[in-house]
TrEMBL record:
This is Amino acid permease. It is found in: Cell membrane. Residues 1-25 are annotated as: Disordered. Its main location: membrane.
Amino acid sequence: MSTDVAGPEAATRPDPGSQSRPSRFGLPTATALVVGSVIGTGVFGLPTALAAFGPVSLVAFVLVSIGALALALTFGALAKRISGSGGPYVYAREAFGEFAGFLNAWCYWITAWAGNAAIVVALVGYVEVFVNTEHQVGWSIVIALAGLWIPALVNLSGLRNMAVTQIVFTVLKIVPLLFMATVGLVFVKSANFGPFNASGTSIGGAISAAAAIALFSFIGIETASVAAGRVRDPERNVGRATVFGTIGCAVIYVLGTLTVFGTVPNATLRETSAPFTDAANAIFGGQWAGQAVAIAAVVSGIGCLVGWTLIVGEMPMAAAKDKLFPKAFLRTRRDIPSFGIISSTVLASLLVVVSYTNFEQVFTTLVLLSVFTAVVPYLFSAAAQLYWLLVRGRKAEWPHLVRDCTVSVLALVFAFWALAGSGYQAVYYGVICLLLGVPLYIWLKAGQREYGGVKS
């Protein structure tokens, strides 16, 4: 473990909020950050959300995996050109200017804390396999709040503790998922799948709608690029961590979902809050297997929240260094963006309370909102890479240029497709959330007495 987290001398970009330079971690932790941030409780809850579409959603999962890989390659290419933390924010800012960079930072920040709310809602479903089995709303909220604040405390205790926790929890979550995605396939029965397209719409419409939900399970593939300023040799390790993590997650997702679909009847799957638990019980009989999977899901959710809680502070801190977010986000504790973590966890906590008391389909609603606010930065990142290739990439050899442009176009098309498939409600709330950032941008620029990039 000591070989993976370097000392203070490894950093290159000083932190305005700290006297010391930030610690850095290597490829294993960077990959664990990607896998840990991508695979949370979402994968444990998604089969229920996808059951309404039937097995056609597996087609959507495969297509989403291809698009996610294109995005991963795009983020890897961008990280080679642009160093420092911030990911989609710095890519959009470099290509399209400060306002585009701000909107991406704002949108991604919303994705991070709203996504944490969605993750913890799925986590609650598995905790309630053991306690609050009657799903009383008050106790569900208490469990959710604990699930949000424990990872926050882990992060605030320091980067080394966060890195160790992330690696340990990633290993613990991968083992049972790999088991379900491999051995579980032996127990699949075709009768459990139900109609291929159970949505009542066209196959194309069902695939698009299912893809928007499935995309939530890949949010996080960019986390290594967001924390690139903390990664050793980011030009090399960020891209590798992103691609390796995305491929591994895609294999586990598709095969794991196939196992659940084939071991739990579709009608039952639509109603359950812990589909992998039901699948394990169906495979082995009794309750012990399902309870073991539920424990794995809780571990997975906490590990995922540990990674995302770091990211929820890193993105606004990167923007704050460029005076595009309030300077309060520069405050750190033990080289960790403390203000960003605490304020974002407070917002996620409020969203959880509102969701449990106002939304009938809590998980799906939060998922689709998070997908919209995540796709906007993905779209800008793919556009930034394509823009750079068309303007400055002409010196490259033609085969390489054609290959890179093809990947960027695929990532861009995939982002538009996911945006369209997220649904009217998600687009409605997502656009409102996006535009709420405009008054903040005005306030920041007015405070700097700047208009059109010129100080008055």
